[in-house]
């Protein structure tokens, strides 16, 4: 038994190895008696190698990003003969202003489960380092990753290719939809301001923190007055970009007709984009009978008595989540549940009178694919009735894209602001 334990006992290997190492070190000492400099340990060698690789990586990364930025600029400015139009990030459809038939565009918006694919030239970690010689391959790419393109935009700004100060305007005016208020844009405001843009979110009459009683709003002009007052106070020659959501689309259309010289571009986000002589109620009537959820959610208010027309429309909170926020985070739904106010009914009934002054302003439309309030089919019917300059499809967005897809909406707004 003792011999068996001896077989499994630990042998003094470390002492023998230490003695051998000391003897070997003694043999390496030079004849003049001075020992050699200490050999760096594994940790020191790894740290030095890692630092060297990091320095080389930063240099290579800078060169690669510069090449990528140049490729993006080249693609924007010099599309190849017969090649595709400048890429439309976060877009899947384009409707030319000429009213021609819509054509499919490369789909590059983020999916619900993951990020979009990279460009077809396969700019991955496994790809060879690319420099100026890779520009032709980059130019041939037909669709792009949202995050890569977003980074290139920022990089080009830092390199001086695109400067916010060089834009026609860097001032966004955000106009909320029916029942909402300026509060709903809080994510969009933060993202735009971080990018150097100026942002103003308007509370329309009887909305948000505006103290007026919603039931007392009797006309569209009264409802839109906070917006038109703001536009009238702009300095001579100063322009803004209007962004309207939901019923806010009719509101910015009214402002476009009244003060077109103050507006550089108008962006309709899942919004009522009406034609001359049409009201918002007319628009919703198109989906009557097909949107039972909308009808079930609406609660009419009769401040002047049941014998008179409704004065406002409220929304049933138990159903509004499925109608307006079916893809939005719970915290934003909670915010909306304590912030929403009734929608004045008279402005919804009022028909717009639009002329050539309205047509002067460049229009863009952002469609929301998972919208239960203004369905995608209804949005597309408005686009076909009066085609804007460009149409973007925001995938995975509900009726409140500022909640459900704030980054995607932000990218589209920035892209439109840079469209010359």
Summarize the structure in words.
By secondary structure, the protein is α/β, with parallel strands linked by helices. The chain is built from 17 helices and eleven strands. The strands form three sheets. The protein has a six-stranded parallel sheet, sandwiched between helices. Strand 3, helix 6 (186-194) and strand 4 form a beta-alpha-beta unit. Helix 6 crosses helix 17 and helix 7 packs across helix 8. The radius of gyration is 31 Å and the shape is globular.
User: Low-confidence spans: pLDDT under 50, at least 5 residues?
Assistant: 1-15, 29-34, 42-150, 156-161
What value does the Rg take, in angstroms?
A: 31 Å
Class from helix and strand fractions: alpha/beta
Rounded mean pLDDT score: 76
Distance between the termini: 92 Å
| Strand coverage percent | 5-15%
